[in-house]
Amino acid sequence: RFPLLSSIMVAAPLIAASVGIGFQFRGLEILVTAFQVFYFIILGAILSLCITLFNYYRVKIILYPVLSANNLNSLTIFEKLLAPILSFMLVTLLFLGSLIYSLNVNRTIEFYKQKTMFESEKTALSIDNYFNSIALELKSTLAFMNPDDMSQRESDREAIRIFNNRQKEHIETLFIARTDGDTSSNRGAHANLKDRGYFIESAKTLKMAWSDILTSRDTGNKVVVCFVPKVAGGAMRGGLGVTINFKAIGSLINDISSSEETKYHVVNRDGKIIYHPDPKYIDKVLGKDLVDENGKDLAAFLKKDDREFSRFKINGEPVLLRKTTL
Q1: pLDDT tens digits for 101-148?
Q2: Element (H, E) at 301
Q3: Residue 319 neighbours by CB distance under 10 Å
Q4: How far, CA to CA in Å, does 191 sit from each of 2, 108, 185, 199, 281?
Q5: Pick from 110, 265, 281, 323: CA 20 to 30 A from residue 299's CA?
Q6: What would the pLDDT profile of 72-85 be if each residue is shown by its tens digit?
């Protein structure tokens, strides 16, 4: 008769060990998904069953001489063969299970990485093309005007005309700026931008400048500013700028986010998150507000040139991060 109680006593610790090791590996990020943990536990349970049966019939074979001498039940041919069969099954199952598991996990992770890399590069290219087309439109318009020579009234009318003929619908406002920072917008607002970083940068470099996400002084919305200077005689002579509602960039990013597990976000050069699908992360700084629980340097990750994936643990969750520069 099969000894059920003693077999349970052998199998229970083995199964419990499989469960414990599975969750421990999950905590150490060796197993990164719930499916992998489940697969590991099922494999451990099957191996535990094989070990239990192997142990039972192995003991019977060892005790066979004693049992025969005392006229107790002898082993059948099937029972004699079952121990080596179970031994072979145990080794084969362990080897094949580990091999299949490793192949599946590696292929799944590699496929995810390749798919995410393709989507992120595609999104970065889309954002670059979108911004470049806006900048090109401003440059072509600015070629036929001189902001410093225009009166405020002329600037107001011209800003309205250019805005009405714009090609990008996400342009929220358009403004004409003079060298002293005074502006005229299509909305009739008049603000001074000489303290804005993008205006200062453009005046120094005589090149187009983009801002980080700002709160528009005109509309109060979150916007990105593109400013193109008018250069004459080696100096800036005013310029033309637009504010782009940041929802446009959010739409571009959200359109390619294919799963709940993958989140794309925009970070400025200082590590500040300026866009994230979850609003609670906006304005958080990587390496300061959001840190790796294992002590890895998130700030150093942002400064690296390579585009490989790096593992971190943030807010109790293991994450894979990859950087694409815009």
Answers
A1: 666 666 667 777 777 777 777 777 877 888 888 888 888 888 888 999
A2: helix 298-303
A3: 16
A4: 90, 54, 9, 13, 31
A5: 110
A6: 454 454 455 555 66
